[in-house]
Amino acid sequence: MDGGAVGGPSGSAGALAAALNSVDQVVCVPVAGAALRVALLVVQFTALAVLADAHHEMRVAVLDRSADLAGRVVTLVDEALAREPTAFATTHAAQLCGVLGRVEIVLNAVEATFFASSARRMLGDRVVRGWMVQLEQLDKELLDTCALGAVGYGVDWMVARVTAMERSSSSSDNHKPDAYLQWWRPPALDAAYVPGVDNPLRAEHAIVAALQAVCAGADTWPRIGVCAVGGSGKTTACAGVAACEWVRKHFSKGTAWVQLDASSTLQSVAEAVVALVHRFCGSDAAMQLSALTEDKNFVAVAAAYVRTVPVADASKWLVVIDDALYEKRELLRQLLGLIPSATPVLFSTRSEAVVSSVPGATLVSIDALPADDARLVLAKAAGKAGVPPFSASEETCWVRRVLAKTECHALSLAIVGSMIADRGGAWRPVVDALEQRWMEPDFVCWDSTPPRPSVRAALDVSFGLLPDEVCRDAFAAMGVLPVHVRVPVLARLWRFPLCEAAAAYGQSVALSSGAISNPGVDELVAVLVRAGLLRRDVDKACGELVGVIVHPVIGQYALSLLGDAARATHQRMVDHYMDGVAVDDLDAHGWRLLRLWEVPDDGSWYDHVVRHVAAAWDVCGLVSAMDRAWQVARLRVSSPLAFQADVEVVLAALMAVVNDRASKASLSPVLLGRAHAALALAYNSRIAGCRRDNIEAAVEHCKVALEHVKWSEAPSLWATLQVGLGRALVFRVAGDRVTNIEAAIACYCLALEVRTKSAAPLVWAETHKLLGDAYDVRVVGDKAANMETAIAHYQRSLEVWTRPAAPREWAGAQNSLAVAYRHRINGDEAANVEEAIAYYRRSLEVRTRTAEPVLWAKTRYNLGIAYYNRLVGDKAASIEAAIACYEDTLTVCTREAAPLMWAAAQNHRGKALRDRLFGDPAANKAAAVACFDRALTVRTRVAVPLNWAETQHNMGVTHHDRQGSVATGVVDVDAAVTCYRRALEVRTPQAAPQQWALTTFCLLLALMDGECWSAVIECGGALERFGRRWAAWPAHQGAVARAVSEARRALFGLLSEPSGN
């Protein structure tokens, strides 16, 4: 391609040409589509620039602004095509296409004013004023949209490092999709529950009635919102509905239960999504989906699976989403979007606004239990049997008093009944204390302040009647824990009060790994259960206590009792867990690294440690949570979205620290620099929010950190900050791309002044790898020289990153070298392809399907392309190897999980099958056409035009089959011509000159075989006029000339034939 053929204001046409020439090597399909549309814009800008000279100054300004916008997009597209494709880059590119479509609309409108008649020119000028405003908005939107894809490079880098690591033994079984058969089920109903489905005054009756109103087999089932204040029995009502006979009969596949409370994060929602996909689509789909949780569009991918479920199957499920808080309504919206409309959904909430936010939702409110049911709840909780449960004397003496003071509130009744049962039916101390509490002057609690007065009074009485201070301290400490708490966690939490109590009585307490032995824990649990403050969680299979359940309202009450001691309680939890881990003493700057990742996970530590260190305002702990080792451990044990939940907690906590004057003053400059460095890492890793803003924040915090940390005081940290700033600059979208990359390279070089191979070999290798990545995308300088420098840096990193010492890093560097050799400009092309194949093979020694399925699939795909392009060796064997690679990729990258990658693999598999030298040629051709047809179900002209054209071209080549393996008939020639002409609708001389020339030449050959002589002359003339702008023109010039000459002779012969009489 001639770099000057397509001029543009940004001078980026040459870069675009290079990108388009390598489109077949790229997985990330939409980027190429975006490249085509940018090229079209560049051409249009060039034409308009000439017209603009004689037109209004304002329109020239609009044109210049548009040109600047397009120029930056060309650079972004070029970079996207040069990189290894990722799921994030796919999303980014698809959004980029949409933004570019809007840029085209603006440009077309401006163009209309250039060609408007003089009578309409004034109107055109007024319209153009609005376009400048729109371009400003598009500029910002384009930056935001492009930035969403940029995060994928960083996340993929991290995923590539960690997905090979086995999950820890304590959690590996929990994350297998088959475990979802046990998870996500309705909670067991409390012994005091009174069924309400048959009582018209109960919420359960209203819910079932709403479900019964829908005809069996209907395509759409209701969304029912159950709304009440905390502790009113929303969860119990939903569990009661799920357990009733009518529901179990009509929803035969069962009930899927999703908890969406205050502790819900991206990680817990991702687990819920996988659980729902497991319910609807089976374990295979759930296994595939679980490998994609790092994708920001994870829920949308899951929805693609669920949409395939037949209505008849979907209507056999009931889904319950429990405790959807107002601040979590966006997560509720995502989950509702995933669930088929043929599946009924119940969701409970404390806010009617949440119900209103769900289109068409039915509201069911709960205020209080009917008086008769309230009596039954109280009777069961108090251990009373019989019909009626209370005598007339009991009704008069205390039952009516309790109903009045509890306001027939379910939680209040359960607490009061438990206290009476604990006293063997002695009701007077409980009831008198309850009434007395309502009368005390300090009892100030309004309905608008949780908990409601009846609950607060019951809790105050229960807390006051606990037997001693140890029990009260133990209960208050529960405020720092989540709803579901396992026994080992309780043992750590209660270590302090139980040890103090034992010391007071001269007793010893048995410790095990920093925890109290179970007898003391069991006794405390028993006391608090009898007080109505906890519920036991018993494993029915083994008959043992495995944990407790704390009602959210009771947990909030316990936290209020802690007050200022909450911070110390959180810190004690961290300290108790860290007992068995070596912790360094504070250095001169007040810093010590907390190796959070060295603590074995007990099912609670990994999910809650960051919350604990944040609540404790432990700056060292918060900084440690952004250490790469914690990221690796978090991804290994949980998922990328679990780490994202940690990122949000760290951001909020550290921002509070650096913005608080007192806290800031208490930190040394170096520790304050570490805090800013951790904020930079958090923003750099963050998925939520505007990516451009996140990267800008990362750059700013890196710069602030470097202001606080001097090379002379902390050289190693200073070098780490330089690397952090370099990373942020590489990903930066705002500002000048050239300046950002050059600054990043400078930062890495500065870091290498400290990070020497002898002093710090591992980080030395890492820095060289990053330098290689930077030179790979470098904009200035000679591209061939930059690629050689990148290769040199990758090879230097391998001096330390050997396979035995650092297998994942070694595999990543091998893959980077493979990509670099595939795109290498210097050297022998055949030798470069062989090098790429060798490096891909080495990478696959570590990136196995079992250990790293996604990276394995991507690497196999790229290896397939290398085999297909191989220039030496047995061609038949190379094509067979390519086919095997593509088929391997398709076992992981399914249409539902990764549609664009799936379509790209189908397209390349079709090419390989078409050129296959083994097997039946007709069968190979039919299989190739089937692959292209499948690819085109995703590669549509609207979504990804350039790749749609590529597949149309490949289809044309397959139909024409000029190599003679299958006889080509008239029908095949006509089909080939149709495909080529479709491809040329997008592959124009201006937008894709090299591809246009190739497709036009193929069309010429097909037209020759079809004896369409006039069309042959037309195609040949177009190619001759294009001439040397086609890189392959010297090799094809003679064939074109011969075709045109033959067509003219044939056409002359036809014209010379005498006409019949």
From TrEMBL:
<dbReference type="InterPro" id="IPR011990">
    <property type="entry name" value="TPR-like_helical_dom_sf"/>
</dbReference>
<dbReference type="Pfam" id="PF00931">
    <property type="entry name" value="NB-ARC"/>
</dbReference>
<dbReference type="GO" id="GO:0043531">
    <property type="term" value="F:ADP binding"/>
</dbReference>
<protein>
    <recommendedName>
        <fullName>NB-ARC domain-containing protein</fullName>
    </recommendedName>
</protein>
<dbReference type="InterPro" id="IPR027417">
    <property type="entry name" value="P-loop_NTPase"/>
</dbReference>
<feature type="domain" description="NB-ARC">
    <location>
        <begin position="224"/>
        <end position="383"/>
    </location>
</feature>
<dbReference type="InterPro" id="IPR002182">
    <property type="entry name" value="NB-ARC"/>
</dbReference>
